[in-house]
Amino acid sequence: MRSNTVAKALVSVTAVVGLAAGSLAGASGAFAATHTAKPAAVTQPVQILDTVNLGLSTAQAKGVQHWLAQYYQYTDTIDGQLGTHSWEAMQRFLKAHHGYTGNIDGIVGGGTVSALQRFLRDNGWGYTGKIDGIAGSGTQAAFAKFANWCVSVYGS
User: Fold this and answer.
1) How many CA atoms lie within 13 A of 134 on its CB side?
2) Of 92, 65, 66, which Cα lies nearest the Cα of 81?
3) CB contact at 8 A, 132 and 116
4) pTM of the entire predicted model
5) At what angle are helices 137-154 and 110-122 packed, to 10 degrees?
6) Residue 142: which of 57, 52, 55 has the closest Cα?
7) Cα–Cα dist 112/86, whole Å
């Protein structure tokens, strides 16, 4: 009786190991190729983030918006969030004076940043880096210097 129980146990263990080994061997490439993750359910509307303050505080961004309202047809809320309308006004300024050639679309792409860098370099705001369209730390520091001037003149 005892050998019969041991034999059944040995056959069961062998079967389990065989099935596991076969499943792993057969599934290694096929399983990875066919398995796809399901996206999580969205319970709120998707919203594109359209605020690009380039490191400015809310107060600094409000100063820039006041300046844009004064000279470049910015008519939206002075809220310290440089969104699409703020950047459209900035692009109008950059197109008029600093070589921006893109669309007035409020998108802060490489062309917008390059023109902003030219403005910050050519007007004494302390930008000394390459005109590369990348809003790195030098661009952000010079933009903050300009924004601080805007706050001192127009308030925040």
Assistant:
1) 6
2) 65
3) no
4) 0.69
5) 60
6) 55
7) 12
